[in-house]
Specification:
278 residues, 4-stranded parallel β-sheet, 7 strands
Length: 278
């Protein structure tokens, strides 16, 4: 890591491209989102000064590390600070806040209605994390049921709807837990994605600006933190499997790109996170 030259001022938007990379929470190919491998490598070749924003809401912890590897390879012939990696869009703590707001809007008053959180499947731990998120969403809302289903995975959406009805739900509302719209099905309602288009664009700009400020302040391009964080994830899983399934605190403490301090997860940030869903 090499610091910025003395006297370097904040670059303009024309100086640095903002590239978005996605995984199972925001599939590549949708709305200009790139895959973290070859797609990103080609884009970096075309944009020698860029900041890369991982489009994860907290359930794709390997995305930033994969992007960091690609950026590191592309940066071998670049000047220090030409290529930056931003922090992910959010953590699972933010996701809980966004989904609480979405469920509260979709099921005002509760009653005999169920929220079915739907998302594309990831790895086993990523999928298990969604069940934890669902439990935390349910805990603080007056909603009888918050269940989980996967688009193209198990349990599928039809199976999830059937489970809700067997539990006693009269109405079932599909609530996306990723940046993928839910399917339209007979007998179910559907909510919008956790972040609307304007809120999503604003959050991407914010993460890009934070990465720029971090480089100018600390000389930190954001590439070291995801690799260390990803390795720690695997080590923690091997040595403390039970704790890993119940905590995941190490993922939230230091989001990639925040090597000098974690994002504060306070009640205020949760309120801000929920507001983004409007």
């Amino acid at each position: 890591m090499t610091g910025p030259p003395a006297g370097t001022g904040p670059p303009t938007e024309r100086d640095r491209a903002v590239l978005r990379v996605g995984g199972h929470e925001c599939p590549p190919g949708t709305g200009g989102v790139l895959g973290p491998g070859r797609d990103l490598a080609r884009a970096l070749a075309a944009h020698p000064r860029a900041v890369v924003v991982p489009m994860t809401l907290g359930r794709d912890p390997g995305l930033a590390a994969a992007a960091a590897q690609t950026i590191g390879w592309a940066a071998r012939g670049a000047a220090p600070g030409d290529l930056l990696l931003a922090a992910p869009l959010g953590t699972t703590t933010h996701l809980v806040g966004w989904l609480r707001a979405a469920v509260a809007r979709a099921l005002p008053g509760g009653g005999d209605r169920a929220a079915l959180l739907v998302a594309p499947p990831g790895g086993p731990e990523d999928d298990a994390e969604l069940y934890k998120v669902a439990r935390l969403v349910w805990r603080h809302l007056r909603v009888p049921w918050v269940e989980v289903a996967f688009l193209g995975g198990e349990p599928g959406v039809a199976e999830g709807v059937d489970r809700c009805r067997r539990l006693g739900a009269r109405d079932v509302v599909l609530v996306p837990a990723a940046l993928v719209p839910p399917p339209r099905g007979a007998g179910t309602g559907a909510a919008g994605t956790p972040l609307g288009p304007a809120a999503l664009a604003a959050l991407v700009r914010r993460r890009a600006a934070e990465a720029e400020a971090r480089w100018l302040r600390d000389g930190d391009d954001g590439l070291a933190a995801p690799a260390h964080h990803h390795d720690h994830d695997h080590d923690h899983h091997d040595d403390h499997d039970d704790d890993h399934h119940h905590g995941h605190d190490h993922r939230r403490q230091a989001p990639p790109g925040h090597a000098h301090g974690p994002l504060p997860e306070t009640e205020e940030t949760l309120k801000e996170a929920a507001a983004h869903g409007r």
